[in-house]
Design brief:
- The chain is α/β, with parallel strands linked by helices.
- It is 20% helix and 25% strand.
- The chain is built from six helices and eleven strands.
- The strands form two sheets. Strands 1, 2, 3, 4, 8, 9, 10 and 11 form an eight-stranded mixed sheet that branches. It has a three-stranded antiparallel sheet with strand order 5-7-6.
- Strand 1, helix 2 (34-43) and strand 2 form a beta-alpha-beta unit.
- The longest helix has 12 residues, at 101-112.
- It is globular.
Length: 234
């Protein structure tokens, strides 16, 4: 079965439809599937629900889909430095489902593992737990969270072979593997596609069984912010 495609648009062909749920990997501006996000923008798919740690910044990453008003709802743990995200949420234009970061990652992993729900102490007694089932275990109260199963996963990896085995780099490994797992279809973009058999099996972070389509491309690799401190004179 063909997995390697020439462009992001070709890799997404036939997979997009209005109102779909998309799980997007990445952490801030690190390890985000920027080429696939741009292709979704160009396709004009709308009324999207997107599960992702955050929405990048105003003009990059998922922020471009907020600017084009293609996202109806975000399932996120962090608004970040995205002013348009904040503006749309506060004005009622965008629905937002807040999740603690670990809970969101586990919801994705659970969905990809066939686990419909799980109990966690995180969020108990806060607005996060409102309207959700509670249960006591060993004298402690837990809240039930549902696993996420997305129509489509879009992720960014460092290397892949042509079967879709993926290797992530540093913090890009935080959300990309669980996001990839929870999609009924997963499309990955990578910096390099290497010959089959050249990846050490012990270094593969996500097996190719989870990846259905694959592209290689150039990436901008922005950083989210830089903090500087004036050197004190002796």
């Amino acid at each position: 079965m063909k997995k390697v495609y020439d462009t992001a648009a070709e890799a997404l062909d036939g997979l997009l439809h209005d109102g779909m749920l998309i799980a997007a990997g990445g952490f801030g501006l690190c390890g985000i599937p920027e080429l696939l996000i741009a292709a979704i923008r160009d396709a004009g798919t709308k009324d999207l629900t997107v599960a992702s740690n955050n929405a990048g910044v105003d003009d990059f990453g998922l922020g471009v889909l907020l600017q084009s008003r293609q996202i109806r709802k975000m399932i996120s743990s962090y608004v970040g430095e995205n002013a348009e995200f904040m503006r749309q949420y506060l004005s009622g234009e965008l629905e937002l489902e807040f999740n603690p970061q670990g809970t969101l990652a586990e919801r994705m992993r659970a969905g990809g593992s066939g686990i419909p729900g799980f109990y966690t102490k995180t969020g108990v007694g806060t607005v996060i737990a409102e309207g959700k089932e509670h249960k006591d275990f060993d004298g402690e109260t837990y809240v039930m969270e549902r696993g996420i199963v997305a129509d489509l996963s879009i992720v960014k990896a460092w290397k892949a072979d042509d079967t879709g085995n993926l290797v992530f780099r540093k913090t890009a490994r935080n959300f990309n593997p669980p996001a990839a797992m929870c999609g009924r279809v997963c499309v990955a973009e990578v910096e390099e596609i290497v010959p089959r058999g050249s990846l050490d099996p012990d270094h593969i972070h996500l097996p190719g069984i989870y990846v259905h389509r694959l592209i290689q491309g150039e990436h901008e690799k922005r950083i989210e912010q830089r903090t500087t401190r004036k050197r004190e004179e002796a």
